[in-house]
Write a structure and sequence with these properties.
Elements lengths: L4 H7 L5 H10 L1 E5 L4 E3 L7 E7 L1 E7 L5 E8 L5 H9 L6 E4 L3 E7 H10 L1 H27 L2 H16 L3 E2 L3 H8 L3 H13 L3 E4 L2 E4 L3
Antiparallel strand pairs: 1-7, 2-6, 3-7, 4-5, 4-6, 8-10, 9-10
């Protein structure tokens, strides 16, 4: 499926018309469902992924099957990891899973590199992609290195609320535990303590933030 240049302009107003027309001509737009795996560890990538609608979770897989959450990709954002693998022709080091029904744009590897050379606006888009995702990864690393699990959980819930644009999070304790690489029992205990402090309210597969 293709996307018209005028629709792309709404998402990427900083990119010139000529390049928007090239993106429209060369990129493939794909609709995905919540839970669909878009990128697998060890996969040889042939295109860069840009999110047009929805949200994609990017995370690392451990040797024993655990998950390590890195960041979310939302509307107008690109996956820096996939771009880096494309430029160096390396296998993917991350997993990408849709966390809601989404629409993504896939741009062929050769076009990603060509447009960096030919269009300043695309070069800036790629640079900003690297910088923004790097800053998000640094936030995650800081939370691990300098915060206890209770602080990490609070940081995580705030980020989830910002992504969802809501104080009500529809998420299970197990899902949080997976993202924070800990056990469900630890998360449930910490959430209960936060509820006792009136920071949030717990319901089945739902958390309402009150004072976070």
């Amino acid at each position: 499926m293709k996307i018209a240049p005028e629709h792309l302009r709404l998402k990427f107003p900083e990119i010139e018309t000529e390049l928007l027309e090239q993106i429209s001509e060369n990129a493939e737009v794909k609709e995905v469902h919540s839970g669909d795996v878009l990128v697998r560890t060890g996969q040889h990538l042939t295109s860069a992924m840009v999110v047009l609608r929805g949200a994609i979770k990017i995370y690392r897989e451990g040797d024993e099957g655990g998950e390590f959450f890195l960041y979310y990709l939302q509307s107008g954002q690109a996956c820096a990891m996939s771009m880096s693998c494309l430029r160096h022709q390396e296998q993917s080091q991350v997993m990408g899973v849709a966390v809601e029904d989404s629409e993504v744009m896939l741009i062929p590897m050769e076009k990603v590199n060509q447009w960096v050379r030919e269009y300043r606006s695309w070069q800036e888009f790629v640079i900003n992609t690297y910088r923004n995702r790097f800053e998000e990864v640094l936030e995650v690393l800081d939370s691990i290195a300098f915060r206890g699990m209770d602080e990490r959980l609070e940081f995580y819930l705030k980020k989830e609320s910002q992504k969802a644009k809501s104080k009500v999070l529809h998420i299970s304790h197990q899902s949080i535990a997976n993202d924070l690489n800990t056990s469900r029992e630890v998360i449930s205990r910490l959430l209960k303590k936060m509820e006792q402090r009136d920071l949030l309210s717990l319901q089945r597969n739902q958390i309402e933030l009150i004072d976070l």
